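INFO worker-7 received task bundle
INFO bundle size: 2
INFO processing item 0
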Amino acid sequence: MKVMKKSHACVRLEKDGQILVLDPGVFSEADAAVGANAILITHEHPDHFDEERLRAALEANPAAEIWTLRSVAEQVSAAFPGRVHTVGHGDTFTAAGFDVQVHGEWHAEIHPDVPPMTNVGYLIDGGKVFHPGDALTVPNHVVETLMLPVMPPWGKIAEVIDYVREVKPQRAFDIHDALVTDLARPIYDSTLAALVGAEHLRLVSGESTAL
């Protein structure tokens, strides 16, 4: 499997000539999902879900499909009839040749005064990759590679560290990092590398690695 980081929370996975894209949002490149055979969306916040990017991908590949939770599916199913699948915690399915398990139900708390919203995470190929979206969901499964929301506005670095320690992945790649300035990155890199208990890695947008 090849993993390519796109800007912010978007990740592209490639295996056997098939491409699976997760969370192409407004902070991601305009063509972040173009070429995808399947797209997974964790929740409805625009930095994870952007209809223009979905439209570009589905127009480029008429066979491409979307899997997402109900709150997003209700917004896009009419625009893409027959190509949007609604999923929730506990569901399993195959998308673009990848085996996917759905974990979690709720977005991390932003503030007690902000109404809660739904969020799902996706465990890919039996734990090869886990993308939690905007949550600190701990799947009841071994995780090899954790896509780590390193600087969400709802979190702090202590929570990020404890999350990695609880999941216990072999490695953690930064996502949700558009808000991290270049000045701050060395602080995050050194702190996480010292404390998370797993290999901490960062890919720049467009960079890829093999798992």
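INFO item 0 finished
INFO processing item 1
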Amino acid sequence: MTPKKRLLATFDVLREWYSSPNFRGCPFINAVLELADASHKAHQVSVDLRESIRQIIVRLAAKAGVKNPEFFSQQYLLLIGGASLMATIEQSANGATFAQSALSVLIDANIGNWHRH
């Protein structure tokens, strides 16, 4: 699997999750939104998980030849958050498809021509 396909695969997994009958939104996003206290342990768990996911994205982006993996990782997380919110509000997996399409364009715009497949 190419590094680009690995980056895009996240949204295949999310699409399945969003389609499941038990999907009630991202539990980590829900916890942060419900807790007014940023010092609460559940808030910190959510922040730590987000950072762990971001670090994985940074490594995959670097392997793919993305110009600025740190910046790209924040854009990627924005797409995940948007897709998750859309799935929660619309009760549909369409957000994963839209985010995956946007991510593909973003990857191509941030990889040198010699990395494209």
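INFO item 1 finished
INFO post-check item 1: Confidence is low (pLDDT under 50) at residues 113-117.
INFO post-check item 1: The helical segments are 3-19, 27-34, 41-64, 69-90, 94-110.
INFO worker-7 idle
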